[in-house]
DNA sequence: AAGTGGTCTAGACCACTCA
DNA sequence: GAGTGGTCTAGACCACTTG
């Protein structure tokens, strides 16, 4: 790989490797070729290949293990499903919850939806109404909005009750950052029924947008939840 | 620096540099010696020194600038003050708020305090009652607990109204991770008065412990806040 | 014993900053 | 133009894993 462009060589190697992983040349949980072979293949020095692989590891795309090899991470792995969830059980583990989808509709995006998901006029969205439970107890009611352009035929592919990490993986999309806004609220009649609390009980209202790795909004969710058996925890590094 | 221990050389170099920075050998906003000089000084290769410096940069201890040098970061810098704050103004910037301290007391730690701050029996704490405001509007009421052992003579040093980043810096302590638990609540009479909301209004209750870089609990805070002009936002990478 | 990634070395050249 | 960090090379040896 001769350095035609102005971008650092190790970045170019990283991108080439990331693309080949995304295209499925190396499957999740298998190894990529070793450093020497990759270096020869790309025509760069082993040090440059190493730097590219270290970058990929820091991005969570591969895992390197001394004496074993460099493994491709599975983007649909269960431990990544709770990546955007801040709920923790009393025991302290992250909880994603079992998803039950009540309703799926397809419609033209409303003004709010167009703004939050940065959609053009007339673009369509899927709207999902869901309940999340932990150990059989409902704790969260959510309204999820997904752009049809990113996830065509989502209901037909039976993905309406899957978490976004699984859905994105099915469509070959890499997820990136998310921002969630938290505010206090009181349970509406519908929320009270779904979550088994009294109407007007104190609840958390969560408003979250998840972006793809390249910055396109992939999901807007507004959720209402109780925190009786659950903790909403935020970690700062 | 001959490698006597089993730890990687670049980690030893990193630790030596971190210690000399902590001891004040190089002051904040000044540069440390260049890579070649450090390498010669430690008796290691430039590549090893570089790896140590890159590590320090990833930890936020220094900032490297091509053509300029490697600068020591100021742990009391204002942009770090909001490190543990998740409040954002309507305009989108992180907000730390102006602190007004209502009361400072010193006492033996209660059972709760001993547990949260991992203190031994009979250890003492400072308890601070505070209000935080943004643009003159109170938005948060907090009860802060600090171990006297970590911050002796805090009130005498006029640090009771400073944020923990400034306090820690004054005591030469490096701060590390923090965990905040968020739950919905209703305003007590006292909270209602302080925050100018009606009694029983929906508020957020924040329960946070901040650790030092070496894992000792440095602050336990329980806060009640309104989110009328403020957003509590959580970012996931 | 063979193969992998992790550490370490000792250079070269480039891009950027500033006097 | 001198000095800095950033990139890149081409090796050596070590620690760990597996057959």
Report on the architecture of this protein:
Two copies of one chain form a homodimer. By secondary structure, chain A is α+β, with helices and mostly antiparallel strands. Chain A folds into two domains: 9-72, Arc Repressor Mutant, subunit A (Orthogonal Bundle); 78-232, Chorismate lyase (3-Layer(aba) Sandwich), CATH 3.40.1410. Chain A is 25% helix and 36% strand. Chain A is built from seven helices and eleven strands. Chain A has helices spanning 9-22, 35-42, 46-58, 78-81, 111-116, 164-170, 189-195; strands at 31-32, 62-65, 69-72, 87-89, 98-108, 124-134, 137-147, 175-186, 202-212, 217-225, 230-236. In chain A, strands 5-6-7-10-9-8 form a six-stranded antiparallel beta sheet. Chain A has a three-stranded antiparallel beta sheet with strand order 1-3-2, covered by helices on one side. In chain A, strands 4-11 form a two-stranded antiparallel sheet. In chain A, a hairpin with a 4-residue loop joins strand 9 and strand 10. Chain A starts with 8 loop residues before the first helix and ends with a strand. The model of chain A has no long low-confidence stretch (mean pLDDT 94). Chains A and B meet through strand 8, strand 9 and strand 11 of A and strand 8, strand 9 and strand 11 of B. Chain A binds a DNA duplex (19 and 19 nucleotides) through helix 3.
Topology:
The structure is a homodimer of 237-residue chains.
Chain A: H1 9-22, E1 31-32, H2 35-42, H3 46-58, E2 62-65, E3 69-72, H4 78-81, E4 87-89, E5 98-108, H5 111-116, E6 124-134, E7 137-147, H6 164-170, E8 175-186, H7 189-195, E9 202-212, E10 217-225, E11 230-236
Antiparallel strand pairs in A: 1-3, 2-3, 4-11, 5-6, 6-7, 7-10, 8-9, 9-10
Helix pairs in contact in A: 1-3, 2-3
The structure holds a DNA duplex (19 and 19 nucleotides).
